[in-house]
Design brief:
Blueprint: H1 3-18, H2 23-34, H3 37-40, H4 43-57, H5 66-72, H6 87-104, E1 112-115, E2 124-127, H7 143-148, H8 151-162, H9 166-186, E3 197-200, E4 204-205, H10 213-228, E5 233-236, H11 252-255, E6 258-267, E7 270-279, E8 285-294, H12 300-312, H13 320-331, H14 338-351, H15 354-370, H16 375-389, H17 397-414, H18 419-431, H19 437-447, H20 452-464, H21 468-479, H22 486-500, H23 503-513, H24 519-531, H25 535-548, H26 552-563, H27 567-579
Length: 595
Amino acid sequence: MSEGATRSDAAAANDEELKGPSASEVRAALERILASRCFQQAGRASDFLHFVVEQTLAGAGPRLKGYTIGVEVFGRPADFDAQSDALVRVEAGRLRRRLVEYYAGEGSADPIKITLPRGTYAADYDYVCADEPALPVHALPSEEIVRSQQPWRYAALMLGALLVGAVGVIAWQQSSLHEAEHALAAAGQSRSTEWPRIVVVPFENLSADPGLDAFARSMTEEIMLRLDRLDLFVVASQARWYGPSEETSLDATASGGYVLTGSVRGTGTNARITARLIEAETGAQLWASAYDERLTLDRLPDLQERIAHEVVAITAPYGPIFEAELARARRSAEAPKLGDCNAAYHEYRRRVNPAGYSETLACLRAVSARQPDIAPVWANLAMLYVDEYASSFGRPGDEVLQSAREATEKALALNGNDFYANLALTRLQFFDGDSAFRESIDRTIALRPNNAQAFAQGGFLLVITGDAAHGLALTEESRGLPKSPLGFYHLTYAASHLREGRFSDALTSAVAVDGQNWIFAQAVLAAAAAHAGRLDISQSAARRIRELYPEFEADALGNFERWHFDAAFYDALVSGLRAAGLELNEPNAVRRGGD
């Protein structure tokens, strides 16, 4: 190659580089992102983005690894294992999502776009092409004209600027859906074997005023984003406002599962928001609710969040979808699927009885025989075995705990990031007396930071082992999340109050647990009531304990040793149970499973 050709190639390469944004332009774009509403309350995402952009500008982008980010950005120790700890991958997914929302909304006019492509931690940045199709932007009335109109209309119009993000969010959801489909296909399952599918039909503006269109869109988006965080397949049926493509229809019956839809009607300064859930196969309406609300700018964010929270609660255990799934599983003549076992497991936890346990165990064993390479099957078996160890029925404690160990090991070997496998591992380590259960609590939460069960279980275990401050903080976080297990929430507070000698508060929380078949809950209730001087309640709880577990008085102290209670909680619980009239004997040489 000639020297002239070499110089020509170098010049061409240099010209190509000059076409891209300069470092100062990228940093200015980064500052706009970090100052946006989308990132203001997202400390982790902001730190993550700032770090990878600066590293990429410095030329280190291609060498960025999960370990470096975990240590430098998230303060993980030097022995951090990015392969087994999903923290960085989870936060990367969150960051990508926030960037999509930012550029579809607040940053839609930014001249430079910063992204974090999948498969790398190096940031990418470039000028926004002028010939990219622009999202439709409608002229807004002047501030004076808008404010002179109905306040809810002004609020809806103001929301419109934020709701242009619909296209980006839907694209992200569809991408996640395709990834999930491929994962399940690789496991030899159809999507319907594990999670119910919900088709979300856009809320419709039934009023004559187009000002409510933006509010209907925002209501749909808020619900979809919340549903997407759960163990569901959320399918967005397309409408004209999702993008410039032609309107397409979705055959909900063919998709299976459920259809969620709703409407908005304006009446003066008020509106009625209606939501309904329909079973796609039968067309039966399973649930409906209406909300009559004042629409003013200051109330809109809280209003949308509150309604969306209540609507998404239909997916929680014992809600309409759970009941429909349980009924479907029980009337099906086909071999059980993992989703059927999940429904049976939640029903067993509601009733807490040996019959429900046996039904769930038989279901999971049948599925594991057909599909031994599916991590969630073994993870759920492990959860069930730990339940057996912590219950008043089943095999001797050491034997069933070994079954839990084996099932957990199989699940983690198949998928080290399986949420329920890590949830089971946390409980297994706790009952083994392994202090590593505390680190496992954090890891499990990192795997699903929007799952209330991880927070509730972790909070409970920490409180009864003496770390009340950390435990109650996790418990409070669980309260605001969908599918919040309120029984655990109240029981954790009852245990904390009992441990601290605040017996009236402990009694109030213990009553709120409402666990007639839950022996541990009845034990805390009996102890709290006895200490609080309510012998009527304590003696009633003691009778219920004897009904559920006739050997409780002989086995209780031996079982309590397996729970590794801290001394303050142990003393308050045992003295309260004795004050309730229960004669607790010294541990037998041979014990049953724990309470």
